[in-house]
Amino acid sequence: QVQLVESGGGLVQPGGSLRLSCAASGINFSFYAMGWYRQAPGKQRELVASITSSGTTDYSDSVKGRFTISRDNAKNTVYLQMIGLKPEDTAVYYCKTDTGPFFGYWGQGTQVTVSS
Q1: What is the Cα–Cα distance from 71 to 34, expressed in whole angstroms?
Q2: Do 94 and 47 contact (CB within 8 A), yes or no?
Q3: Which residues contact 106 (CB under 8 A, 6 or more apart)?
Q4: In whole angstroms, how large is the CA radius of gyration of the chain?
C-alpha cells in the first residue's frame, strides 16, 4: 500500500535550519509530483513547496528564498531544506502526492517548532 513517512522535524531556534525528509513506498515515485504542506494551530493547511516529476519547483511567497524542495528518485524521497527559520514557520509539516493514480495521499506529519 501507499505510505509516506516524514522525518526530520524538531525544535530549533529562530534563524536555524532543518531538513525534512519524506520517504515514499507503494508508488512509482519518480512519476509523481510531490508537495510539502504545513498546518499551524488554528490555521488551515497550506502548500509550502512543490516539485514536479521533472524537478520543476514552486514555493509559497512566505518561504521563497528560505526553503528548498528537492527529490532523490533513487531513494524514493522528497526533501525540504529550511533555513532562516522563523517562529511563524512553526507547524506540522506533511508531504503529499500531488499527481498520479494515488493522488492525495498524506504522510503522518512531522512537527517543526521554532522558538528561543
Answers
A1: 9
A2: no
A3: 4, 94, 95, 96
A4: 13
Classify strands 46-51 and 34-39 as parallel, antiparallel or unpaired: antiparallel
**Tens digit of each residue's pLDDT (9 = 90 or more) over 59-95:** 999 999 999 999 999 999 999 999 999 999 999 999 9
Alpha-carbon gap, residue 83 to 106, rounded angstroms: 24
Question: Mean pLDDT across the stretch 48-54?
Answer: 97
What residue type is assigned to position 14 of the chain? P
pLDDT, tens digit, 9 for 90 and up, residues 13-22: 999 999 999 9
Task: With a cut of 90, say whether residue 100 has pLDDT above it.
Answer: no
Nearest one of 52, 108, 60, 55 to 82, comparing CA atoms: 60
